[in-house]
Structures are given as C-alpha cells and as structure tokens.
TrEMBL record:
This is Copper chaperone PCu(A)C. It comes from the Bacteria. Transmembrane segments: none annotated. PANTHER family: BLR7088 PROTEIN, COPPER CHAPERONE PCU(A)C. InterPro entries: LpqE-like, Lxx211020-like, PCuAC_sf. Pfam families: PCuAC (PF04314). SUPFAM superfamilies: DR1885-like metal-binding protein.
Amino acid sequence: MGCVGRLILGVIAAFAALSPSVVLAREPKAELLETAARVSGLDLSRRIVANPGSAGHDVAGYFKVRNAGAEDLLVGMSCHCADRVELHRIDRSGARPTMITDAAWPIPEAGVLEVRPGGALHLMLMNFDPAKSQDGRVTLELTFRDAGKIRADFVLAADSRAAWSKFEP
C-alpha cells in the first residue's frame, strides 16, 4: 500500500474514532448492531439469522433469553421475512441425527435459554426472503406463554458461528 493509501486509512480510522456512526468496510461487531429487546423480565440478546443471500431457502436463527422472573415458555414465532418460523431440535441419540419440530421451549425460572449455532436448538425460517430485511436486520415476533409478545430485530449473518462469537467477551 502506498503513502496515499496509508494516509487515507489513517484519516478514516481517526474520524471513525471520533464518530461512532461511521461504517467502515469491515463488518461491525454484532453487539453494536443489537438494540435492547425486553419483556416482563425476559431479555433477548445474540439475535442472529443466517443469510443465504437469495430467497427461497430455509435458514436457521439463534438467540439467547435471560429470565429474571418465573419460568415461561416460548410458544411461537413469526416473521414477515418467511412463510413460517419453526422451533427445531436436533436429536442425536440415533445412528443419524433427526430434526424434531417442538411446540414450545421452556425458559427456566431465573435461568437462560440459549439457542446457539452448533447446539441442539435452532429456529428455522421457512422460505426465507432476505430482500425483506432492512439495514441488515429482520424483525421477528416472539410469543411467550406468560410474558406475551415482543418484536425484536435479528442481525443477518453470512456465518452464524462467527457472528455468535463476536458476542463473546
């Protein structure tokens, strides 16, 4: 890289340090993209949806729920970006893993439900359309038995595992 290129990068870096709204060419940290999503003692974080880049695919979604109150139950999800959203669990007890669609997932009292890449649980957005995203996010509506409904933005990520790891301290 020549002197002019280094000078330009230096100016951009200095300006970015002064102005957090500047977007650089590299992908920003996921925690900077996430806004608060809370309802009745439930705090949703690490909200990620895999982005295949084109419409018509079934894609996975991930998130974490911290519960400061009594046990609750996630009983449904929806999104205008997909035909439907299912709660999936991978059963690895047999010779071959099988996918099970669950009706609900418990969120333990004063506990955590973690739906993470590589884990047994994931959301499945059926017939996902990334063109319905806005600013690299899609909005999903989660329905809890006791806490009710909450709308939360999920960040689109080409690599879910890498995006999840950006939340690590």
